[in-house]
UniProtKB/TrEMBL annotation:
It comes from Tessaracoccus antarcticus. It holds the Pfam family adh_short. Keywords: Oxidoreductase. It comes from the Bacteria. PANTHER family: DEHYDROGENASE/REDUCTASE SDR FAMILY MEMBER 7B, SHORT-CHAIN DEHYDROGENASE-RELATED. Belongs to the short-chain dehydrogenases/reductases (SDR) family. This is SDR family NAD(P)-dependent oxidoreductase. GO terms for molecular function: oxidoreductase activity. GO terms for cellular component: membrane. The lineage of its organism: Bacteria, Bacillati, Actinomycetota, Actinomycetes, Propionibacteriales.
Amino acid sequence: MATALITGGTSGIGLAFARELASRGTDLVLVARDAQRLDEVAQELRTAHGITVETLSADLSDRADMTRVAKRVESDDAPIDMLINNAGFGLHSTVLNPDDVETHAKALDVMCLALLVLGGAAGRAMRERGRGQIINVASSSSVIFTGNYSAVKAWARTYSTSLALELRNTGVTVTALLPGWVRTEFHERAGITAHSLPDIVWIDTDVLIRECLADVDKGKLESIPTWKWKAAMLLADHGPRAFIRWFSVKLTNSRKKR
């Protein structure tokens, strides 16, 4: 039976991955900061699906915790077949505010350095076994310019492809997930005003996860959900840069914290 390790596995996209994989009979290792929430989600999934759920309480902005999770990823005793690098948080404060430097540094630790460390650990272990799947949750924000969040997610997207190419022909696949606006508590927790956005931009979480897992099974380098976001990403990647800069300013203004 396969085992998947999911960082940020108790809420949002991470929890949706956990529930979908559990429904398919996949054993889980869930990583998150809140030990009580970890226990609650683990018990829910064990009861509903009869799977094994291991929990690791860890803060991926803490180097010691990050190393501890990496050792679990690379363990030979209980191999990880799928790594989902999902942990993250909204980051929409201005890059000019000196009071937010520590928040930006934490974002780099959680959404860049942790991907590098955990992805490397998984890549080494999976390459030795000749099989495995890695999913790195990036964002559609990676192609626009909305402060440090876009920069962080652009790094995640580039890193994911670099790792995939390094692991080419080893039996290990690496897929970057580039979601748009997904209906989770992510925006509310970040204090972002999103209720005014039109319905067409939103993606159902279950659709996002199932399309991603299908793309992973096909060995795709990137997973972009739904035709509308595929079209948007195509425009953002290949459209006029002046338009993307203009759009980025408009979007930043519309997403200001309450």
